[in-house]
Specification:
Strand order of the largest sheet: 4-3-8-7
Order of helices and strands: EEHEEHHHHHHEEEEHEE
Largest sheet: 4 strands, antiparallel
Number of strands: 10
Structural class: alpha+beta
Number of helices: 8
Radius of gyration: 22 Å
Distance between the termini: 41 Å
Length: 377
Amino acid sequence: DTEYGSLANVSSATFANTVPVLGVLVALNGYLATATVSAGTPYGTEASGLRRASSGEFFRTDAFVLSNGSGANRYPIRAATDAGDVAQPITANEAKVLLEQAFTIMARARAQIRQPLDSQAQVTISLVDTRGQVLGIVRSPDAPVFGIDVSLQKARSAAFFSGPNAGPNLLTDPSAEVRGFVPAARSFLGNPAAFTGTVAYSARGFGLLHRPYFPDGEVGRPNGPFSRPITKFNPFSTGLQSALIIQNIAEHVNFVAGASATDTAQRCTFIPDAAPGQNRLQNGIQIFPGSVPLYRGSTFIGAIGVSGDGIDQDDMIGFLGAYNASQTVGGVGNAPTGIRSDNVTVPVGGNNVRLRYVSCPFAPFLDTAQQNVCQGL
């Protein structure tokens, strides 16, 4: 709550006064070709890569999309690419309705991490098919920029762990450590067929298996099967999440530092491709809540991920967006209640601990005092 100017006399804090006293600029391969300061670009312009959606791209022109810098939407709404795997894939119209309904919920939602209080939530919403291919990305004007990557990670994580390929794909990863997480998780859950498409895992449900304590927050408990033990856990080494991409990070660091002439491929993880040049976890996994898998009846067809102003808000926007889409177009919506991850229980310390599915916030909307908005859906 302290203004920056009151912390110190900053009148002489110019960039020129910092060099070389406090440090010097350095060139970084792939980022900064020469050791100079570059000008920024105004947010919302083509050059920034984020611009306002046109009326032909999205039903609300207060939405923003990712641009290629020349006017083209990088992730336009489209039909699913997995016709060879799914009998009735998501259609372009269903994709449009799913994103519209989630955006509509967002426009009513009360933000959790934004000031002033009672501000509207601002998020990025990503939609994927069963192969992790993007079917559309849309965001509100002031949504956190990090949410672009995180919302897509969430969507792909829910799709991956809810589909039939999670266990088999991880077991073919070149890393023995990554492969080892699968039998550990199956033993922990008491289910030798876990992660073969029998359970609909939200990011919240899967994420609880990736905590250094299970149940989450109960100090002294064992770690979840996808997590490091608490003595080895840190933000840079979380477990399966970090093990999947550690090779990519090493390759990239070597390239940036000039130790290698070859950068890592513009993709994360080394699991098998679901389509040429595209795996199901192209930008890694996310262990924060905020995504749900999508179903047509009992058939898994994709996932929606949300990131922005609070993980409970993210949960609600994706979950209610999918529910409202099912009421609008029918045929596409949330997982059947009987297969959701909150049906999974794990024996811990003499108790059966239930996983979660979604957790919608208290007093979630700005336009009504309604509570328990996700209950029974």
